[in-house]
Design a protein that fits this description.
Blueprint lengths: L2 H13 L7 H15 L7 H13 L4 H9 L6 H5 L3 H4 L2 H12 L7 H13 L4 H25 L7
Length: 158
Amino acid sequence: MSTERGLLWLLKETLNFDTKPPAMDYEHYGKALLICAKGDGKIVEAERHWLLGYFDAFGCPEDVLDRLSKYDGNDDLKDVIEPTPALSQTRHAAIYDAIRVSAGDGDLAASEISAIKRLAADLGVSSTDVDDLVQVYTEENTVKARRQKLTYPRGQPY
């Protein structure tokens, strides 16, 4: 089994990427997500755990995962995103993933959404777009729960 083949399939299937991003993009994007997760004042362990698992699944190098596991989220979001051209194109995706990271502890608090909206505005992403992304996140979770109930009516086997 080819790990690289599986990774490229996952990237294409879920993000429509044809290639693996460079390590620097993983690091900057991860920092951006943690800055957003800290928008309510703290990065809780469950949020960081979600991010590290997500990035590990998508082929993030170990040294970058290690740095993100210790990152405090105190940088300016614009400074983190703007150095790489590809990341400047992912502003909306960063806000969507920030929603997912912030909900990584099982709760997407109103204060987190407010913080994400403030940070989104700094990136030129409208409050309406954030609301739409929160709605998509909520709808995806509803569909996921329904799919799991239909495909595993007796419960998860593992």
